[in-house]
Specification:
With about 350 residues, this protein is α+β, with helices and mostly antiparallel strands. About 60% of the residues lie in helices and about 5% in strands. It is built from 14 helices and 5 strands. Strands 2-3-1-4-5 form a 5-stranded mixed beta sheet, sandwiched between helices.
């Protein structure tokens, strides 16, 4: 916008201030400065650019200096212009800072409502369009968790957001933070966006873990996918999963296993309960089974993971067989034992007895 397009209302009283201040050599009064600040705020709220507004002030200054009043002392005039324009810019910037804070508050409230489903879905969908999301479509959510807690504006989320924008441009993607984690909401049919987010977030969080929820339809789909991603992170922690990127779709068996807690507890106690009779308790033997199953029942790899000799590992497996009556090396027994071990990890047994 050119300076001549600025309405004269935002220069109201300016020529009079220049005339009086330059004639007497005085500085602007408190009332005059405040009037400039107020006009600056009004101009910012109206959406005018500061560059064009300053240009309008300079044009008005030239018009005043070449007016019929004769020559104006340059030093006094420039001092008055400097004070007036500085106060105007101060008011303009003050209004912009307030607008930014209000925008940040509105964005934060929207994100909280979006990820927790606390708002009317119809109203939420309307608000989402302001932030580039169309909630009538399916969406998927990825969540990254590192050692540190992250907030909006921190280096890590900014780096990830800039990388996504540079790679994909405007793809209706929202990158934010929630409860110290990095969050990405993307259209459900754009797996490449979430894969790229996962790689960038893993690097930005210095090796943090990323979980990706399944694509879910409709305004409530974001909440469902977000909760799936959080659930995957929780499972990874409880089950000591080492993969840097987890997909909720690949972990569906675990919620199924844990859905009936009482049945799972019965299986754990009936299958692994006898291990509590050993001198070291059940935990070392449960860890042995866990390592054995996680390495595909390869004794040498499991022994290395546990810092044991293969002979010591074999002794432990034989002891488990004698105590429980089930043989980890027998395919007929293996499924029951492995399911019981998964249940023990999900229920924090034997650390939390039941």
């Amino acid at each position: 916008m050119a300076s001549h397009d600025i309405p004269g209302d935002y220069l109201d009283g300016y020529a009079g201030i220049l005339a009086d201040a330059s004639a007497t050599g005085r500085g602007l009064t408190r009332e005059e400065l405040e009037s400039r600040r107020a006009l600056g705020e009004r101009a910012a709220d109206a959406g005018y650019g500061l560059r064009a507004l300053v240009g309008a002030h300079l044009a008005a200054t030239r018009a005043y200096g070449s007016g019929p009043g004769g020559p104006v002392p340059a030093e006094s005039l420039l001092a008055a212009v400097e004070q007036a324009v500085d106060a105007f810019a101060e008011g303009y910037e003050r209004a912009q800072r307030l607008a930014i804070r209000q925008e940040e508050t509105a964005r934060r409230e929207f994100i909280d409502d979006l990820l927790h489903g606390r708002s009317d879905l119809g109203l939420l969908a309307e608000r989402a369009e302001r932030f580039g999301l169309r909630l009538s479509l399916a969406h998927a959510v990825a969540v990254a968790q590192g050692e540190a807690a992250y907030e909006e504006g921190d280096r890590a989320p900014r780096a990830v957001e800039h990388a996504l924008a540079g790679r994909f441009g405007d793809r209706s993607v929202l990158v934010t933070t929630k409860d110290g984690r990095l969050v990405c909401v993307a259209p459900g049919d754009q797996d490449e966006v979430l894969d790229f987010f996962a790689a960038q977030a893993h690097a930005a969080t210095e090796g943090g873990r990323v979980a990706i929820g399944r694509s879910q339809p409709g305004p409530g789909g974001v909440v469902q996918s977000y909760e799936e991603a959080l659930g995957a992170l929780d499972l990874a922690e409880r089950l000591d999963l080492t993969a840097p990127v987890l997909r909720a779709a690949d972990l569906l068996v675990y919620p199924v296993l844990s859905r009936d807690r009482q049945a799972m507890a019965d299986l754990v106690l009936n299958t692994l309960g006898p291990l509590r009779a050993t001198r070291g308790g059940a935990e070392p033997l449960v860890e042995t089974l866990s390592a054995y199953f996680d390495t595909g029942c390869v004794a040498a790899q499991a022994a290395r993971r546990l810092n044991l000799s293969v002979r010591a590992l074999t002794y432990r497996l034989d002891r488990i067989h004698r105590l429980t009556g089930t043989n980890p090396a027998d395919p007929l027994h293996r499924y029951t034992l492995q399911t019981a071990v998964i249940g023990a990890r999900l229920l924090d047994w034997p650390e939390r007895p039941f």
